[in-house]
Amino acid sequence: MAPGYRRSVLRMLLTPRWVARLALLVVILVACAWLGSWQWGRARVDVVRTPAAGVAVLTDIHRPGQPVNQAQIGRRVLINGVFDADRELLVVDRQESGRLGVWVLAAFLVDDADGAVVPVVRGWLPAGAEVPPAPDGPQKIVGWLEPTESDALRERGRDPLPEGQVEIVSSAELLSLWQPPLFQGFVIQQQPEPQTPLVGVDPPSLTLGGSLDWQNAAYGVQWWLFGLFAIFWFVRMMRVEREDLAAEPDVLASGLLDTMEVRDDHRSPKG
């Protein structure tokens, strides 16, 4: 790039109009960078488990249709009711001690909850093992209350699973399969019954990795793209104006020559 061109661009940028445009660009870039980072931070959903000590009755701290809140995650709860043998699912691709298997997920009809059920993970089984029937009659279960699992855990492009199998414990999906009323989230049974062949499922650790909310992540990327577009707009306007300014001397010179030719024509003797 020629030194003369750089000097002319610098002189143009130091004019009041372009100083104002440059200041506006800086404001837009700072805003887009901050908003993008803010949305990206919101997209990162970190779960920190701080359950209270002791055992709480589920119906005392949780209601059907309400999400599991931060204070309830990992809380040990007591449930009284009966298993519904007609509503049972297998949650596929669950590991236990390095082995791949399934969770046995059953609907548990909670006493004094107006017919609402809570999903209960009865335990883990190796893949292909026969599922033992749930215990009959009134039951008293102690387990850990967990929130609904994120859709980010689903395997993308996976073929539909056979009937009776699901990928995740999703309250939205269970609502369509089991019908309301339903307690959102689920309970991991502390002591499986029968103990054999079911294996107890350990609750997640107190510090969990986060998941990504794709909607907020997309908003964050959009803000950064807006910032890049603002840079493109600024450079484009600068180049267009610089080209117009560079063309002005040629236009003036062309106009001057035309004027001189007209004058010469007037001065020439008539034939």
Any overview of this molecule?
- By secondary structure, the protein is of the alpha/beta class.
- It has 2 domains: 24-46 and 211-243; 55-209, no CATH class.
- Helix content is 39%, strand content 24%.
- The protein is built from 5 helices and 9 strands; from the N terminus they run H-H-E-E-H-E-E-E-E-E-H-E-E-H.
- It has helices at residues 3-13, 16-43, 58-61, 171-178, 214-267, and strands at residues 44-45, 55-57, 76-96, 99-110, 117-126, 139-146, 165-166, 186-189, 211-212.
- It has a 5-stranded mixed barrel.
- A hairpin with a 2-residue loop joins strand 3 and strand 4.
- Helix 2 runs antiparallel to helix 5.
- The radius of gyration is 35 Å and the shape is elongated.
- The model has no long low-confidence stretch (mean pLDDT 85).
